[in-house]
């Protein structure tokens, strides 16, 4: 899995240099799969970052008569004061904050995908299968995992209605459980799809307007700007989760089909 919600600087690209090392019968499926995924014949990047998703959500809101005056997102990092007490420190969202710092922070599945002819840049999160099911091993786009917190400030109109455009309509737990159902684990630790995908069921990744949120009020001079949304960093608004599931599924299914024919 790539990044987590708020990971706005992640870029997904396709590269062919790894494909040269593949068996000749596999190169075709890899290229066809990538072309289908990226919807481009020139290996262009696709806009899967959070800012793009927010723009699409704002467009949807405008289509139903809502007007977003302004939105702002702040990231916080947890640190300790001199007396040992924890505190939250704001940090900039403009700097690249989710790039892999070492090979250990690279997801297991990303290595397998790269070997099949695709490469994903700017990644820092992993999903692994354990006895308790599919859980986050590292799921923070900040320097240290599990220390991120978001404040999404939204100014809104149309009947004093607050809409969360930074959060996916599907909950994080639902997406993770669905992924765990659709994927199994091989001996080498690689996540592969099970019969659920073979039956044609596509993974759901719905990005739209979501009103489910936790809010609290701050005292301000203007009544219409006195509500601030609070949420913990999660993978609910994560386009890379669905991207990975579709990608690994299609590559594996085509590779398996060819392997069966060449045996």
What would you report as the Rg, rounded to the nearest angstrom? Answer: 20 Å
Mean pLDDT: 39
Shape: globular
Q: What proportion strand?
A: 15-25%
Q: Distance between termini? A: 32 Å
| Parts with pLDDT < 50 across at least 5 consecutive residues | 1-27, 33-51, 68-78, 88-252
Q: Strand order, biggest sheet?
A: 3-2-7-11-10
How many structural domains?
Answer: 1
Q: Give the structural class.
A: alpha+beta
Q: What is the count of β-strands?
A: 11
Protein name: Lengsin
Family: Belongs to the glutamine synthetase family.
GO biological process, one term: nitrogen utilization
InterPro entries: Gln_synth/guanido_kin_cat_dom, Gln_synth_cat_dom
Task: Please provide a written account of the structure.
The chain is α+β, with helices and mostly antiparallel strands. 29% of the residues lie in helices and 23% in strands. The protein contains six helices and eleven strands. Helix 1 runs antiparallel to helix 6. The longest helix is centred in the last third of the chain and has 24 residues, at 239-262. It starts with 10 loop residues before the first strand and ends with a helix.
Summary keywords:
263 residues; alpha+beta; 5-stranded antiparallel β-sheet; two-stranded antiparallel ribbon; 6 helices; 29% helix; globular; disordered N terminus
Write the layout of secondary structure elements.
Elements: E1 11-13, H1 24-38, H2 50-63, E2 68-80, E3 86-91, H3 108-115, E4 119-121, E5 126-130, E6 133-138, E7 148-156, H4 172-182, E8 183-185, E9 191-193, H5 195-198, E10 214-217, E11 227-232, H6 239-262
Antiparallel strand pairs: 1-4, 2-3, 2-7, 5-6, 7-11, 8-9, 10-11
Helix pairs in contact: 1-6
Function: May act as a component of the cytoskeleton or as a chaperone for the reorganization of intermediate filament proteins during terminal differentiation in the lens. Does not seem to have enzymatic activity.
Protein name: Lengsin
Subunit structure: Dodecamer. Interacts with BFSP2 and VIM.
């Amino acid at each position: 899995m790539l990044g987590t919600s708020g990971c706005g600087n992640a870029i997904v690209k396709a590269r062919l240099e790894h494909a040269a090392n593949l068996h000749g019968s596999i190169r075709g499926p890899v290229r066809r799969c990538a072309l289908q995924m990226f919807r481009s014949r020139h290996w262009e990047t696709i806009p899967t970052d959070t800012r793009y998703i927010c723009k699409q959500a704002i467009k949807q809101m405008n289509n139903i008569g809502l007007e977003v005056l302004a939105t702002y997102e702040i990231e916080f990092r947890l640190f300790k004061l001199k007396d040992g007490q924890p505190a939250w420190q704001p940090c900039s969202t403009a700097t690249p904050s989710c790039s892999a710092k070492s090979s250990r922070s690279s997801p297991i599945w990303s290595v397998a995908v790269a070997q099949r002819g695709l490469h994903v840049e700017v990644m820092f999160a992993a999903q692994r299968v354990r006895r308790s099911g599919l859980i986050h091993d590292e799921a923070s786009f900040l320097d240290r995992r599990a220390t991120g917190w978001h404040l999404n400030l939204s100014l809104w109109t149309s009947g004093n209605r607050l809409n969360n455009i930074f959060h996916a309509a599907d909950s994080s737990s639902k997406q993770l459980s669905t992924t765990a159902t659709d994927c199994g684990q091989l001996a080498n630790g690689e996540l592969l799809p099970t019969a659920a995908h073979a039956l044609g069921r596509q993974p759901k990744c719905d990005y739209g307007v979501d009103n489910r949120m936790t809010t609290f009020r701050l005292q301000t001079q203007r009544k219409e700007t006195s509500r601030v949304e609070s949420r913990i960093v999660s993978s609910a608004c994560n386009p890379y989760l669905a991207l990975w599931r579709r990608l690994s599924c299609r590559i594996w299914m085509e590779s398996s089909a060819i392997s069966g024919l060449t045996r």
